[in-house]
């Protein structure tokens, strides 16, 4: 938020009358904005209202993504008032949700202008997706309704309407993305200039967590010190010849939903797949057998470098093309056009309505 400049107080009668008049004008404008929204809407972008159902579905989606990144499965045990980089999780999710809704509404406005609409095949696919939800609920529509109400706070019909808007907005985005052209020469030039970046490395690691991987809550300094000591001790055992995969199975906190250590701690990956500190160590020109301890937001990783392999051009050609295309599309469309349209179609919010919904979301 930008800070307003401080204003010097004055007490003349004329100025007081002017301030009162300005307040009345602002109040009238606020009433007009609220009345222009349809009953039940929580905001507006251009002429398109934002429904409570849209806000609920996208908020829940962002909450689930946040929990997944924090490796927490239970939203009821998560403290949404925890601060991350200066703002609470709740504030970040609300902003991300409203930003997403504004962009979706703009895409819908532009889709109409471009003549992009849902065809029969699109509607059929939407029906199939809804039917699949019912099948996943044991074939019971009533059970599917119950699950959606529990997961997103909306009915099946409401969910379908939100889904239709998302499909149309994505269809419009895809039509714009298809306008971007990439040549084979551009792809080869990118590969030659960054060949080493497409290499794959294999490492074995043991995670000693420094946070509760279910809730995201950080350990105390005392528990963090114990974790570091454990990591250092495991590293010493490995350097003395202990079987690292066996140690990983017994000690690593990097576990799947089945409670087992993921792949005995062995990972093969290219750049851009892991958290920065983990990746930086793995690609730091190590020799096979090199070991070390790396700290990330998850904890201490006891690392052992296994091997590095060069990736051939043909194996990554499609990946490089997709990367160039996405970068160009983001630069030309997302950054330039969409940011400009956000000024043309600002987001208008009903803060009272949003606050009431948030009370049910972040209990």
Structure overview:
This protein has helices at residues 13-36, 52-69, 89-114, 120-136, 141-152, 156-177, 184-193, 221-239, 244-251, 276-282, 313-344, 351-361, and strands at residues 41-45, 48-51, 83-84, 87-88, 200-209, 266-269, 291-296, 299-309, 347-349. It is α+β, with helices and mostly antiparallel strands and 363 residues long. Among the domains are: 42-179, no CATH class; 200-309, Chitinase A, domain 3 (Roll), CATH 3.10.50.40. A hairpin with a 2-residue loop joins strand 1 and strand 2. Helix 3 packs across helix 6 (156-177). The longest helix has 32 residues, at 313-344. It is globular. Residues 1-38 have low confidence and may be disordered. Residues 217-244 form a coiled coil. This is PpiC-type peptidyl-prolyl cis-trans isomerase. Keywords: Coiled coil, Isomerase, Membrane, Rotamase, Transmembrane, Transmembrane helix. GO terms for molecular function: peptidyl-prolyl cis-trans isomerase activity.
């Amino acid at each position: 938020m930008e800070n307003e400049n401080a204003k010097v107080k004055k007490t003349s009668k004329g100025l007081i009358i002017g301030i009162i008049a300005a307040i009345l004008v602002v109040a009238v404008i606020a009433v007009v904005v609220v009345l222009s929204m349809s009953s039940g809407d929580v905001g507006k972008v251009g002429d398109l209202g934002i429904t409570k159902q849209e806000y609920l579905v996208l908020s829940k989606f962002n909450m689930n993504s946040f929990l997944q990144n924090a490796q927490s499965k239970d939203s009821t045990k998560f403290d949404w008032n925890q601060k991350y980089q200066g703002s609470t999780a709740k504030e970040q999710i609300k902003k991300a949700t409203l930003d997403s809704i504004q962009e979706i509404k703009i895409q819908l406005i532009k889709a109409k202008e471009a003549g992009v609409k849902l065809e029969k095949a699109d509607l059929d696919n939407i029906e199939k997706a809804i039917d699949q939800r019912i099948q996943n609920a044991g074939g019971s529509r009533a059970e599917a309704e119950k699950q959606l109400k529990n997961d997103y706070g909306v009915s099946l019909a409401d969910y379908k309407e939100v889904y239709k808007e998302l499909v149309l907005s994505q269809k419009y985005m895809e039509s714009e993305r298809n306008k971007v052209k990439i040549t084979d020469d551009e792809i080869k030039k990118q590969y030659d200039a960054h060949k080493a970046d497409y290499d794959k490395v294999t490492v074995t690691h043991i995670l000693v967590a420094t946070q509760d991987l279910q809730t995201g809550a950080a350990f105390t300094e005392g528990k963090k010190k114990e974790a570091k000591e454990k990591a250092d001790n495991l590293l010493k055992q490995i350097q003395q010849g202990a079987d690292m995969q066996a140690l990983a199975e017994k000690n690593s906190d990097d576990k799947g939903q089945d409670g087992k250590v993921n792949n005995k701690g062995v990972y093969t990956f290219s750049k851009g797949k892991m958290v920065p500190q983990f990746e930086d160590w793995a690609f730091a020109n190590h020799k096979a057998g090199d070991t070390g301890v790396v700290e990330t937001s998850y904890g201490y990783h006891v690392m052992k470098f296994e091997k590095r392999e060069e990736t051939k051009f043909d194996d990554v050609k499609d990946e490089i093309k997709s990367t160039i295309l996405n970068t160009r599309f983001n630069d030309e469309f997302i950054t330039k056009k969409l940011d400009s349209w956000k000024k043309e179609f600002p987001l208008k919010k009903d803060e009272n309505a949003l606050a009431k919904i948030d009370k049910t979301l972040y209990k």
